[in-house]
Amino acid sequence: MHEELSALLARMPDEQRVRVAGRDFWVGHLQGQPVVAVLSRIGKVAAAITATVLIERFAVRSIVFTGVAGGLSPDVNVGDVVVAGTLMQHDMDASPIFPKYEVPLSGVARFAADAQMAEALVAAAQSVLRDPAALIGQQAVDEFGLYLPSVHRGLLVSGDRFVSTAAESAALREALPDALAVEMEGAAIAQVCHDYGVPFAAVRTISDRADDAAHGDFTRFIAEVASRYSLALVSAWLATLPVVS
Question: Model pTM?
Answer without folding.
Answer: 0.93
